[in-house]
Amino acid sequence: MAARRRTKRKSRTSRRTRSRFPWGKLLLVCAVIVVAYVVYLDIIVREQFEGKRWAIPARVYARPLELYAGRALTPAQLVQELETLSYHAVRNPARSGEYTQSGGDFLINTRGFTFWDGQEAPQQLRIEFSGNVVIGLSDRAQGKEIDLTRLDPLQIASIYPTKQEDRQLVQLAQVPVLLTQTLMAVEDRLFYEHFGISPRSLLRATLANVRAGGVVQGGSTLTQQLVKNFYLSNARTLTRKVNEAFMALLLEAHYSKDEILEAYLNEVYLGQDGARAIHGLGLASHFYFERPLEQLEPQQVALLVGMIKGPSYYDPRKQPARSLERRNLVLDLLVEQNILTAEQGSQAKAKPLGVSQRRALATNAHPAFLELVRRQLYRDYREEDLTSEGLRIFSTLDPLAQTAAEAAVADRLKQIERARGLPADSLQGALIATGIDNAEVLALVGDRNPRMAGFNRALDAARPIGSLVKPAVYLTALAEPQRYTLASWLEDTPLKLVPRPGDVWQPGNYDNKFRGSVLLFDALVHSYNVPTVRLGMDVGPDKVVATLKKLGVQGDLNAYPALMLGAADLTLVDVSRMYLTMAAGGFRSPLRAIRAVLAADDTPLQRYPLQVEQMLAADPVLLVNSTLQLVATEGTAAALGARFGADAGIAGKTGTTNDLRDSWFAGFTGNQLAVVWVGRDDNKAMGLTGSSGAVPVWGDYMAKVGVQPLTLPMSERIEQVWIDRTTGLRADAGCADAVQLPFMAGSAPEARAPCAGELPKSIDWLKGLFR
Amino acid sequence: MKIVARLLWITTLALGLSACATHTTSTRYPPPVVDRSPPPATTFPSGEPAPITPPPRSTSSSALPASGPAVIALLERADRQYMDQDLDSAAATLERALRIEPRNPLLWHRLASVRLDQGQIDQAMQMAAKSNSLAGSNHSLLARNWQLISLAYRAKGDLDAARSAEDKARQFE
Q1: What digits encode the pLDDT tens for the residues A260-312?
Q2: Is A713–B59 a contact, with Cβ atoms under 8 angstroms apart?
Q3: N or C end of chain A, less CB within 10 A?
Q4: Is B130 in contact with A612 (Cβ distance < 8 A)?
Q5: What angle do CA A361, A367, A369 make, to 5 degrees?
Q6: Quick one: fold of A58-154?
Q7: Which residue of B has its CA nearest to A704?
């Protein structure tokens, strides 16, 4: 606009020139134009500098690792966590971010972190393990025991706007003096003396360049460089140079040197991480050395400052020789200007580049889990807030569980394909692991290749669930203790149903046998189809649907007889909700992937609190759960009992669909639920049952994260009774085949099995006392 | 109502800590005696098959489960925050403790108290019910939960339900 105004006036003035040339007026007009232009530039300069200078992407963190005496953790898991967090293994930890291990004894200098519920100060931790348990935790600096602490959390992703600039803002006070000194020595020696532009520097740079026969120094001041990056395009035109000079002067007129320097330190471009642009020295320090600016050593400072000239040309990871040369040149300069002593200089030059190994993890290592986080966030926040406000999002992801889950799915599928002669990569798998009683999502795998950010099978694939539905049938029945107990008899004979006129359905058992009659708990443990359908039709399909809804299933459910055998397409998320409610004793909690969101200045914006709602009576749920424990010792998941021992108390249910298209297992331990699906994307038969596909994946996952034994919470209303398996009546030590089952008060069978001898009255009375 | 809720909190304070304490000498805040017994074994099978030997645990303990030092520290922190009326922080601290011991009924009871003070009546009742479902035969805690549920009904204006909850509380006293 200013340019247009200028041309208009020019033409008007030239017309008047012909008659009598008004030099004075022309000068005045020119002055007005220049002033207007400067005012215009001034507005731009001030608006941008005083407003929000940078769009800071939201950062998503994993859960912090809690450490306390009694924590179940292996030393190997702690090492894995420390490595992922880029703690350096050293002999004697001196700085934060360093650790040393000697067997089950760790010394860790933690970094400290601000969480949504308070701050964790940097500590010099000592951690002692005994086997797979943390037994001691103390602070070496203060020489006292600590009850609990947590490490800094892993950043798992950033949520960017279209322009993928990332930065970690620093304040000048945080920046080591050596860094600003180095920056000025290299880029702008007279920074604190000039007024935005520096003719002296320009002259010196020109001389130096002529002497060196190439460009070794730039003549732009830091202010000019900041203006260039901050306000102007990259085009090398004269207008831009003039604008740059004007704006540099204006910036200097309005703001202090320190303010300008701080902005420069945060703006400067320092490299590329895939699509993510690394800006500012704060982030660059983490990106190249995995440590905060305050902890950089002289040679590291020299490297970062040296790179400003050409971040990709001097990329220390890709061009180590070139960047080493540049670094040493900078170190020489520092010695020359007496910023470092000659000795310090040569010591620093002797050091290696020391750039950290780049992990593929940096930006978005777990896209499947992040997708869940995104969906929850977009419900509560606007896109621009997520990509510009520097929000800090604390997710529930457990990186140890996540890597275990990814490996379990990928490795086991490969193994199954090889063992069964299936085509490579024909199988797909998904897994969701959640914490019991708090419904936090710990791990989520949506593809056997966990880096694939495409179709998310855990969130979006709805597949028939097969026998996974059965516990809901039994739960519905057991809510009527006067009609059904775990020791009720169910008929297992051929069954013919007519769900709709002209539509005849004759369900069969998996092994095509009929057993005449089976005990109710046995029918669930061995996943017999026909007795289950009978039971479901007896209690009413509508009631079974109602139970499933109460358990948290959100997918479509039809009250047809075939529902009893799992004719319902559900996602892993839905199945997780259903089994979580059972594992939590009938209390439903919404699945959570986020614990809290903080603003950039650490003020809490939102908490996602733990919520519970009792949907089902606790007692029938307990009856079903204890039957699900038998599934893992003698039923369709007996492999797990063999692998982890009966005392692990694992509870779960397998699911297999028609023609072996889907293989499911949903199972829980004392602290985790994991739901696994294995199948093919084209929905073709793959020849795997729940027992042969999903169960081993589940077992591999749990073996990696550790099984905390499940002890079901008993209430006083529950009575444990030994039952003879052949008669379903009360058993005693004389019965060869007996099982202990829970019963709701007053519902246990009274009669004794023939194998259980009549007890003398007195002992019966005694037993009554202890019941 | 708040005062009653507070009194309830203070009584459970003694209840909770004395469950961890074997001997109390001080009158107000008995120092918790930390249970140093090994925690429930978690197995990490390195080879197959893996033996698992969890310590014998009673299914219906009469006392509260022995809290580890971490949970006791968090409980004490939550108590301070509650007394300072910093209810958001108290809730966050209790949630953190629940991540460590998700089946500790005392933690659920405390969280129910905080929710009640925050005016989240329904969550308070639900959490008291959750605490009850985990309390086994701990009658004093069952009684406290029913008292809390009664308070919650009173806050909702449902006096009949409040009275019947009080009756339930009395059954356990």
Answers
A1: 999 999 999 999 887 788 999 998 998 898 888 888 999 999 999 999 989 99
A2: yes
A3: N
A4: yes
A5: 110
A6: Penicillin-binding protein 1b fold (3.30.2060)
A7: B44
